[in-house]
């Protein structure tokens, strides 16, 4: 469940404005930091880098977009690799190249999901430049996607993609801690592409591309049964450890699921057998997000399923993105 402050950023509450003086201090420090790093410490990688990020805290749909980019750019012939923070993981060393047997508690849930869904090489580490260096030395890649990292300014980038939650938008529009923003809304005018996850593309959304998240039928976590229509699962207990759990709950309800229980959890929340039993309760099934599923193991006492999600974006976005990548390729060849 959202704590009082993040909830107030989006529900029209006035009291967060009491924190505006601290937001002003945050703004000053972050601007100075960006200026210094971009001027003196930024390093440009050897291959084009696409950064997928946001200017607000919380989930906006970056991971489904990264998966979509990996799949479609690979189809276009690019040799794609991914770098990610690996939040929630504890790898043996950093940077760390994901292996076939990597676990979420080692590398984080989002990088593991990306690797399993796409098959592209993924390296995690807080130092994105070190992660890129390891990726270039350990895999044959000619294009790198950074999962998050819009504010990681030491990492030079060639294309920036900002993702916005179409339902929550930018909340109250204030900087941390009075609002959810890491940078002011003016930052959106500097990025190359703005992707809006769901919602309506109104007049204020001019120039944005809409991303829709399309669900597939529920899938058993243990893989021992086939996908089935959601209405065949019976009564559902829902649990979501993502940035915006309500989006998942609303989607399942719209799909016709017989929801009897909803449990929002902290983003990147871990799972254990006792917690899974508690979450299912008296429901026939426990249904979680695909991101949560990579952290779950069914022990036979929980009827555990997840809902696969795939992003859908307009064709003209992909063609324009490829044009930009090709432009950067030509520039890089000239520099070399």
TrEMBL record:
Domain of life: Bacteria
Coiled coil: none
One Gene Ontology biological process: lipid A biosynthetic process
Record has Nucleotide-binding as a keyword: yes
SUPFAM superfamilies in the record: P-loop containing nucleoside triphosphate hydrolases
PANTHER family: TETRAACYLDISACCHARIDE 4'-KINASE, TETRAACYLDISACCHARIDE 4'-KINASE, MITOCHONDRIAL-RELATED
Protein's name in the database: Tetraacyldisaccharide 4'-kinase
Gene that encodes it: lpxK
